[in-house]
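Backbone description:
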Amino acid sequence: MLEYEKGGELKTKSIDLLELSPSTDVNTLVGEIQKAEPLITASRTKQVRLLVQRLQEKLRQYCDHNFYLFKVLRAHILPLTNVALNKAGSCFITGSYDRTCKVWDTASGEELHTLEGHRNVVYAIAFNNPYGDKIATGSFDKTCKLWSAETGKCYHTFRGHTAEISVFIIQPSKHSGCYWKYGYDRQIMGHSERREVVTLTRKLPMGHLAEIISLSFDTSGDRIITGSFDHTVVVWDASTGRKVHTLIGHCAEISSALFNWDCSLILTGSMDKTCMLWDATSGKCVATLTGHDDEILDSCFDYTGKLIATASADGTARVYNATTRKCVTKLEGHEGEISKISFNPQGNRLLTGSSDKTARIWDVQTGQCLQVLEGHTDEIFSCAFNYKGNIIITAQQGQFLQDMALTEGLCYGAGLLATVIKNLNLQRTNII
């Protein structure tokens, strides 16, 4: 991120280094950046080189560690619905059928606050990351609440829905003060901290005719995509509520829909056993990814958008090249359907969670299973790497299980927390 002043106004500009790898020549790359960006003067060369070297070092971290069971938390008297962590990793929250949300200290596992006030299941929960000073909760009582993460005080209650609230997300980047939610009344509502901003409903032309199963933003927070049981995906303008595109092509329910990092492509997964790639500008389908023998339950891009991973009810996962659309490798080994799949931040490992009660870590290029994570007593409905890639979180209904990667010989089996969880949010049944 470049910060500069223009006309007395402070501005920022980002440079995405999506091609950076551990083998990239840093001096050559810095030279190319300076040629393309006049804001970076010769006096800043050393600083830029240092920043690129630090990013490159992060890509080399946590490639060959084994993961060890660190802690099991049973947080509520009734089953767990969702989990969310602040970006700093200092605390996390849990929602439950017991109508409460609880705030926990990550390092000690100590309960910090119990957020009481909802009159039904607390299902959708989120921090206002990256700040992490507020907590948003959505409930089957048809309301959302905004809380202080530090004191547990309720700031405000948002109303307007006529049915249960199932999805709650925070608008990213410059819109971080806006909260978006979807209810079973088939309405998507956007709120600032004090007032409703815009409402997207199925009554809009070419809107959805059935429940929405997936809701996500692009990187800038300017567009929303929604995937529905009506077999379609809709791209919306977040500021106006205007429909930009309707993506029609799947012949069964949508299971996932998301942008790649530079927002040039949209990936959709479906119960029709396929994934589709769409041009985000034109709304045209550019490829259909096939190969699975059963429903696709989850799909994702890696952090750079070069690779695509798919998980299926056929018990396998696949990796595709986003440019050639060819299958790179097939992941086989689970004895049940795979409900969740995610890349580590470095992009060289995949994590899968399955109904066979295990999670597995895979080598992206070879498809080799590197480790099986066991300990759950029921099917795993979600799993993810943390912000650094050295911690894994897995979840089954009613239980929160955290596995942690430790450097060889460091706190092995000692049950001590050496690092923190960062940047994980569990919404509905997905840890993102």
